[in-house]
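Changelog note: in this version the structure field was regenerated for every chain. One regenerated record is shown below for reference.
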Amino acid sequence: SNVSWKWFNIPLTRRLQTLVVSTLTFFTGLPFFIGLFVILCCYKYTLPLMIAYLIYIFVVFPRMNKHPLKAYDWWRKSLFFKYYRDYFPIRLIVPKHIRKLFDPEGNYFFIYHPHGIYSFGAVVAFGADVHGIDKMLPGIKFHIQTLGAQFWAPFWREFVVLAGSGDASAKCIKATLNAGPGHSPVLVVGGAEESLLSSPKTNVLCLMKRKGFVRIALETGKPLVPVFAFGETDVYYNYAPHVPRLKEFLLKMQKKIKFA
């Protein structure tokens, strides 16, 4: 028989890891939650709740909250992120002699590279605390800067908000750096453009048109902290760098819709 039953032998833990990563990945999680929202809008009993939710997202929340948002430790330290971490797995290394250089009340601008397709390492290393980073760098409050549109996506946005993320704008980054002791933004500097160039065993940095983070550091007087993610570009095989016409098309779409 050509039928393989190996799929049924996959351990439950591995299945949970896969489910968590799928839920928290932009390409699968976001469409699911938008679809769920649309379905709930189709029923008379849940439609009023969805309308109220939209009012909260677009009216109430922006008025009641300003960046940097509070990150909730119960979420950052949850079993959810431990499954996420162990799926790859992902490790975080901060040498002891480097840790000593950080002031617990200082503000730092962390610059993460490479972007890869999704920046999985940044999500686990800074959006969560399942490596003990709060003990490695005590007092530092990390705020990952991400696509602003994610704050408007029903249900999906809650993951972003609970992690204390920012909207990757100069205004938000400056506000975070000047928010008080420890508040530190984390920026994946290459952005969507660099994600289109991501390919296994390569590390391409899009920097010539993305020097604004240096200007912000100079204006605020805050130090830049480089972060390198080994293996980030190995997660996916990306056809775009190898197919010129596809790459050209995706770059045009990225410029129009602001993400890849």
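Spot check on this record: The CA atoms of residues 21 and 182 lie 29 Å apart. Strands lie at 109-113, 141-145, 183-188, 224-228.
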